[in-house]
Specification:
alpha/beta, Metallo-beta-lactamase, Chain A, seven-stranded mixed sheet
Length: about 290
């Protein structure tokens, strides 16, 4: 039986690392050290033997992310077989424009989106041109309704609370032939979700969870209050899930540029690893 690979294409919060107009310690290091940089959070489901791949979120960094993935899996020239969107924020949908006439000029790539996002893409410039010119084919996804992308692989969207100015926000269950993965790059607060995150993670083999902020101090040095950009603190998530680390691999992704866990030798990173949690890294692969 052929492999199914979940590939981590990006791990940063929407603005990436370095972040625009920021010269904090992390961003300054990333500006001078390419190995320290991080692109916006995205995943790919790769079917290597079939020479196919499916994308979750089309980030502003798609051009770079896509080329790396294609070269790694000998997929040069192979357009993604479909795209799934979590939501409409700037780190998650701008890469869709690369499919247009000025870019790849694709032909009816299936794009799975919730009703609100689908309406936005159909009725607003510049997105509507993608459907008018048949670059993409919009398809509905609904809460808890499984989408089969292969005989062995499915993606199931789950509504989560987030700032839904333009779209609903989904987490995704990615079910392979051997493992179940829960992907939640964005959520406001675990307490605002009608589902218990502990119960959900118990059902997963691997979790990739919102790690935007480690603590409220992450944004203090640039004069912003993390409450303005609601995400669960990593410290809170670890407290909730500490008893699961022996049975479920829990990775943090969607890391804000100011987050100290980005620094490999930081106390924050050391503590996280000692507690049995992990940081997602670009290029990381999971056989599912």
């Amino acid at each position: 039986m052929s492999n199914v690979i979940l590939s981590v294409m990006g791990t940063a919060q929407d603005g990436g690392l370095p972040h625009p107009n920021c010269f904090c310690e992390n961003c300054s290091r990333a500006l001078n050290d390419p190995t320290f940089r991080r692109t916006a959070s995205a995943l790919a489901i790769v079917l290597p033997e079939e020479k196919k791949w499916h994308l979750i979120d089309a980030t502003p960094d798609l051009k770079e992310q896509m080329s790396k993935l294609q070269m790694k899996f000998q997929l040069e020239g192979k357009i993604m077989s479909s795209i799934f969107f979590t939501h409409a924020h700037m780190g998650h949908i701008p890469g869709l424009l690369f499919l247009g006439k000025e870019g790849m000029n694709t032909n009816n790539v299936p794009v799975f989106a919730g009703e609100k996002l689908k309406n936005m893409l159909e009725n607003n410039a510049p997105w509507q041109l993608l459907t008018k010119l048949d670059n993409i084919l919009l398809k509905d996804i609904r809460n808890d309704e499984e989408v089969k992308i292969d005989d062995r692989v499915s993606v199931t969207p789950v509504i989560v609370p987030h700032r839904n100015e333009f779209s609903e926000t989904f987490a995704f269950w990615i079910n392979g032939p051997n493992k179940k993965v829960l992907y939640i790059p964005d959520i406001d607060r675990w307490e605002e979700w009608e589902t218990d995150i502990l119960d959900e993670c118990k059902n997963a083999d691997i979790c990739l969870l919102d790690g935007t902020f480690h603590s409220p101090k992450d944004l203090e040095h640039i004069g912003r209050d993390f409450k303005e950009v609601p995400h669960p603190l990593m410290t809170t998530t670890m407290e909730k899930l500490q008893d699961l680390t022996d049975q479920t691999k829990i990775y943090f992704t969607h890391l804000n540029h100011s987050n100290r866990v980005i620094v490999p030798d930081s106390n924050e990173r050391k503590e996280l690893l000692e507690r049995g949690f992990y940081i997602a890294e670009e290029g990381m692969e999971f056989s599912i």
